[in-house]
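A further point concerns the way the authors explain their paired sequence and structure data. Since the whole study asks how a given chain folds, the encoding of that fold should be made plain. A single example would do more here than another paragraph of explanation. An entry of this sort, consisting of the sequence and the corresponding backbone structure tokens, reads as follows:

_____
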Amino acid sequence: MTRDVTVQVGGSAMAITVAEPAGAGPHPGMVVIHHREGIDEFTRAVCERLAKNGFTAAAPNLFHHRPAGEDTRESRRSLNDGQVVADIDATIAWLQGQKSVRGDRIGIIGHCMGGRMSYLGAASNAAIKACVVLYGGGILRAEGEGRKPPIELSGNIKCAVAGFFGRDDTNPSPADVARISDELKKHKIRHDFRFYEATGHAFQNFSSKESYREQSSEDAWSRLVPFLQTELK
């Protein structure tokens, strides 16, 4: 089960979808960055699965500045990295304000555009102690006037990064992933990137029959949960 809370960010009310583990805690916290489709059945399921594994999951609605009911493709085009960082910071602050959450054990995870934003968040907020990127495209691209691409902020990352990608994906392509890995190596940032063969973009999204690959998805879950448990222990 998930519930929604609301926080104010830049004069706008932002909903955060929350799923909590059983027991009083305190539990490690996870910021969950949604894909282009927003806070949908898939994102709620991600939050619930993390909660079942012992994490308090909080997914901010990054489209809170946009009109209700707007096509999410248009909402996605409206985002800029300054806004996104502010939303991530506000979500971390909310998690740290909960007695049931370990404020010093916060991770971040994201799918698709959320994978990009997860990387950006790890490079922008030192409170993040673990980062998971699932087929995050656009890490090599800046979004917002005067902003740097997330890859150019890699040296700011203070945590380990786990990445899961489809070999047949084009955004990010295997070449893009190699560039990101090289940048992390340059800054001596621990990371583990894994490719899945015969797998493209959005392979964890069970809502899409075309892209979902159950075996790849479940293998990624079997690896990302222990990664988070280790890094946020």
About this structure: Residues 3-231 form a domain with the Rossmann fold fold (CATH 3.40.50.1820). The two ends are 24 Å apart (CA to CA).
